[in-house]
């Protein structure tokens, strides 16, 4: 059985994979995460997940490497992580009272080649007041998260409805990932 590497600095991805009973190590990719401006959200998350996984695989060719990327999409426009309070405010105001999509791409690279997939989840927000948005930004939760919110944190208070895999919104569609890893002889110790 080859060792599995998670090519991610995201604490959420680490927690989800650990909770699933998978053994792995972490090597953070130094890919410069470039995407074409013309990319659709699904193309963007697949490309970024591939860039992260292939960069780490080049340094660890005897391993199985898992890369992932999450973006929020509103009317097809990609929202990444907000770089400032102003940007977080603009993103959350745009998401207020609307349904957006969260795309997470996953890429597994091994000696046998590369396998990728993405998950799309619809998330509907209640209408938010400017005061709520400002108070939320003051919690500092917005900044390392696509779309400027965390569904697993205080951002849960914004969510009216979700359709799809909750864990994919948090950053990793863990059930599908574990099922896919089974064909690489990587399995959860919980099921052994
Ligand atoms: C929408 C949403 C995103 N997120 C997170 C998941 C991802 O970690 C992050 C999007 O950024 P990513 O670039 O996908 O990931 P990352 O920079 O955190 O980690 P790495 O590239 O090293 O793998 O947003 C939440 O935690 N909760 C949410 O509700």
TrEMBL record:
Organism domain of life: Bacteria
A single GO cellular-component term on record: cytoplasm
E.C. no: 3.6.1.9
Pfam families: Maf
Biological process according to GO: nucleotide metabolic process
Active site per database record: 69 (proton acceptor)
UniProt keyword list: Cytoplasm, Hydrolase, Nucleotide metabolism
Main location (coarse class): cytoplasm
Any one GO MF annotation of this record: nucleoside triphosphate diphosphatase activity
Record site: Important for substrate specificity: 12, 70, 152
Cofactor(s) listed in the protein's UniProt record: a divalent metal cation
Stated family: Belongs to the Maf family. YhdE subfamily.
HAMAP family: Maf (MF_00528)
Role: Nucleoside triphosphate pyrophosphatase that hydrolyzes dTTP and UTP. May have a dual role in cell division arrest and in preventing the incorporation of modified nucleotides into cellular nucleic acids.
UniProt-recorded name of the protein: dTTP/UTP pyrophosphatase
Organism: Texcoconibacillus texcoconensis
